[in-house]
């Protein structure tokens, strides 16, 4: 307010002290009519702050009894006005909170510790199978519904809420009226007093029964899956062992057949005509083919059982070794288009992959000048290798079939046509977390692609490191 000197013997509340100066003129008109006894005015201080006052006025009279003015008292009611405003805002906030609580499926609660008054916003009765208004609104009634094991884990829900000054985020089981159990997730916050103790709790409870059932079903499925995987591994192991033992045992009578065929050729050659000699030759050929097939079955059954650890393998050295082992006809040329990387893998695996792919390309070459090219390209997380030839080519309908065991596109009249080679390649590539496929055009040739994880540095780095080690440790 202004100093008293600013107001004594001065016009009544100059315009600068009014929030709306027009209200001053209206007040004076009312006072002249002697129609104002109590009036609320909105003023402002010399500092510009809003001020609420109540005016109590009475008219004054001269000696003739005529009204010649007015006198009154101003009461500062700013504090009461602010309180009313805050109360109204709080009431409005509570109304919005209650509307929001009613519109959600969550159960909102407010618990006053001193009075043990527990207000629920949401259908708490329906959530626990009670009639409307039947479930008691006390913390004790709520706590009694919590499963005893969960009560022990929470060290007593009432004590838990009364003493904890931290927020609560817990899951527990609640018993419905019919005795069945549901799962609740609670998230609560304490309202603390001046000493830091909780005087009230506000929070929400959510029924998570369906989620818990889904988690339990998922856990059961995982257990069943693990059991199935173990059973499958056991069955696969038994199958591999059976294949290996069966193949091994088959070789004994097979060797007998081969021996008998050789004995017939040596001791009774003069007693056979040309047809008979051809039949004996076919027996010998079929016996050798069968022996090769059995060897390949044993090899396939043992894939993945090797105890050999993965190591850095320089593919340039591996490829040179593989090519040197192949009986390469003079009309066929194998070229390596670019320097190959180094891989983290089992060395025997990568040798078998290249050996099978290059041997197939040589075996099925039908061109006077055969060309076989080996190359690789970098992909995001892997290396992509390719073995291309200009041979027979493969029809698209056979692209998947050729990778299946015992499937071959050529007649089985030769020792090597077992139909297992590409199956071995596919299994080895997949054991090393890669994939394999073919692109081909009949009469133009085929390209077998396979990928392997990019888990190591390139071959140059390995060769450089090896060279440095040799320099550091000369023989």
Fold blueprint:
Elements: H1 22-32, E1 38-44, E2 50-61, E3 67-76, H2 78-103, E4 107-112, E5 117-121, H3 124-127, H4 139-144, H5 148-153, H6 157-163, E6 168-175, E7 181-192, E8 198-207, H7 209-268, H8 274-302, E9 311-314, H9 315-325, E10 332-336, E11 342-345, H10 347-363, E12 370-378, E13 382-389, H11 421-431, E14 436-441, E15 445-453, H12 459-472
Parallel strand pairs: 10-12
Antiparallel strand pairs: 1-2, 2-3, 4-5, 4-8, 6-7, 7-8, 9-11, 12-13, 13-15, 14-15
Describe, in plain words, how this protein is organized in 3D.
The protein is an alpha+beta fold and 475 residues long. It has helices at residues 22-32, 78-103, 124-127, 139-144, 148-153, 157-163, 209-268, 274-302, 315-325, 347-363, 421-431, 459-472, and strands at 38-44, 50-61, 67-76, 107-112, 117-121, 168-175, 181-192, 198-207, 311-314, 332-336, 342-345, 370-378, 382-389, 436-441, 445-453. The chain is built from twelve helices and 15 strands. The strands form four sheets. It has a five-stranded antiparallel beta sheet. A hairpin with a 5-residue loop joins strand 1 (38-44) and strand 2. It is elongated, with a radius of gyration of 48 Å. The termini are far apart.
């Amino acid at each position: 307010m202004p100093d008293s000197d600013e107001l004594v013997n001065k016009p009544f509340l100059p315009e600068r002290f009014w929030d709306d100066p027009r209200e001053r003129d209206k007040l004076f008109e009312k006072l002249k009519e002697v129609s104002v006894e109590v009036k609320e005015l909105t003023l402002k201080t010399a500092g510009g702050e809003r001020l609420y006052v109540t005016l109590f006025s009475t008219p004054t009279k001269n000696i003739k009894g005529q009204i010649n003015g007015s006198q009154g008292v101003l009461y500062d009611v700013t504090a009461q006005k602010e309180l009313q405003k805050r109360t109204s805002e709080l009431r409005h906030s509570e109304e919005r909170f209650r509307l929001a609580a009613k519109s959600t499926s969550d159960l909102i609660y407010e618990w006053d510790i001193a009075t043990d008054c527990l207000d629920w916003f949401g259908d708490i009765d329906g959530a626990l199978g009670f009639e409307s208004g039947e479930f008691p609104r006390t913390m004790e009634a709520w706590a009694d519904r919590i499963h005893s094991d969960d009560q022990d884990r929470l060290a007593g829900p009432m004590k838990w809420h009364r003493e904890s000054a931290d927020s609560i985020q817990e899951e527990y089981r609640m018993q419905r009226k019919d005795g069945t159990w549901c799962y609740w997730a609670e998230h609560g916050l304490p309202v603390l007093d001046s000493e830091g103790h909780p005087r009230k709790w506000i929070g929400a409870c959510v029924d998570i029964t369906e989620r818990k059932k889904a988690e339990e079903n998922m856990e059961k499925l995982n257990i069943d899956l693990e059991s199935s995987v173990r059973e499958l591994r056991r069955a696969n192991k038994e199958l591999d062992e059976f294949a290996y033992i069966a193949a091994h045992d088959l070789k004994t009578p097979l060797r007998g057949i081969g021996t008998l065929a050789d004995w017939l050729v040596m001791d009774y050659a003069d007693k056979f005509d040309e047809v008979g000699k051809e039949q004996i030759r076919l027996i010998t050929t079929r016996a050798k083919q069968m022996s090769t097939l059995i060897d390949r079955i044993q090899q396939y059954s043992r894939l993945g059982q090797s105890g050999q650890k993965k190591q850095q393998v320089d593919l340039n050295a591996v490829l040179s070794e593989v090519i040197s082992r192949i009986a390469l006809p003079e009309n066929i040329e194998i070229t390596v288009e670019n320097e190959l990387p180094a891989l983290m893998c089992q060395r025997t695996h990568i040798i078998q992959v290249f050996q099978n792919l290059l041997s197939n390309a040589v075996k099925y070459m039908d061109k006077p000048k055969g060309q076989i090219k080996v190359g690789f390209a970098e992909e995001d997380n892997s290396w992509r290798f390719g073995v291309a030839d200009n041979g027979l080519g493969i029809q698209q309908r056979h692209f998947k079939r050729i990778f299946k065991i015992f499937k071959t596109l050529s007649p089985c009249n030769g020792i090597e046509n077992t139909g297992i080679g590409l199956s071995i390649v596919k299994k080895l590539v997949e054991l090393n977390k890669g994939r394999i496929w073919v692109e081909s055009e009949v009469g133009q040739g085929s390209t077998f692609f396979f990928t392997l994880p990019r888990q190591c540095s390139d071959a140059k780095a390995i060769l450089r490191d090896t060279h440095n080690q040799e320099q550091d440790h000369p023989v």
